[in-house]
Please model this.
Amino acid sequence: MNLKKTNLFAALGLASGAAFAQEAAETVPVDVTEAAREAGNQFWAALHIEEFTEFVKSFVTWPNMLKIITSVLAIVLFYIVYRVIKHLVEKAAKKALEQHTVKLVTKAVSYVFYVLMVMYVLSCFGIKLSAIWGAAGIAGVAIGFAAQTSVSNLISGLFVVTDKAMKIGDFIEVGGISGTVDEVGIISVKIHTLDNQMIRIPNSTIINSNLKNYSAFPFRRYVFELSVDYGSDIDKTLEVLKSVPARCPTVLTDDPDHAPNAVYTTLGDSGINMNLIVWCKSPDFLQTKHDVCVNVLKAFNENGVNIPFNRMDVTILNENTVPSVNLKA
Model:
């Protein structure tokens, strides 16, 4: 019998079998058919359960159980050691480093612990770490090219932390944005402005811009600029201006290194320009500005010292002409 005849007989057999199955399905009651289908489903489910059971039995062996128990005990032991090391590092870092640097150090210790734990568990089950390191290296290169800005901020963050140009609670200004530092991170610095808005400044911006830290030193100088009328008594005006710091509670008057001073500077278009130079503690700067301004005005009013200001005089000649305007300083 050749191949063509064999295929023909097989096709006839399948056709007859299908016809017989269809005829049997038409003659057999519906409940019997459903029962047979349910029995078939149970049979296949039993086969799957048996396969799953065999898989579990092949995995749950004494060597594997011993590896799991060893891994759990090692993780518990390493976690205790990790907590002790983290506590000691944090305690030592608080004595020598700033608060934000302490947080970065403790985070680094935590990340190292997690990486070591994962590597240990994988090695216990015979997983080769060389392939993982190779894949991680390739992924690191790809991520580095895709996130150049983040890498730049990361490297800049290392300079920001090691430079110690600021700390949490300092009032800084970067690129025209000023506020109090809330967090110094490895990627960015978070500050809140005087109107209580949170601003995130990338570390690369801080490195490439001029940073002003108004809280770096305990004292700040404030220069109050003003003018007096040319007709004023020069000596008396200077004495009156020098008496203003004594009226301001936040101005340093007893410290010889930060003593207040008043000087004439230039001859202006409308009056004689003067400067009142005072010192105060950094947290009292805004209050000092307020006190100096108010007390200068009070002292001048009490002693008849005139401060020149622009004025506009309007003269009406008669009802039929346009008023003439004369600007005076």
The longest helix spans residues 62-96. The chain has nine helices and ten strands. Strands lie at 171-174, 177-184, 188-192, 198-202, 211-213, 219-228, 261-267, 272-281, 311-315, 324-328. The two ends are 127 Å apart (CA to CA).
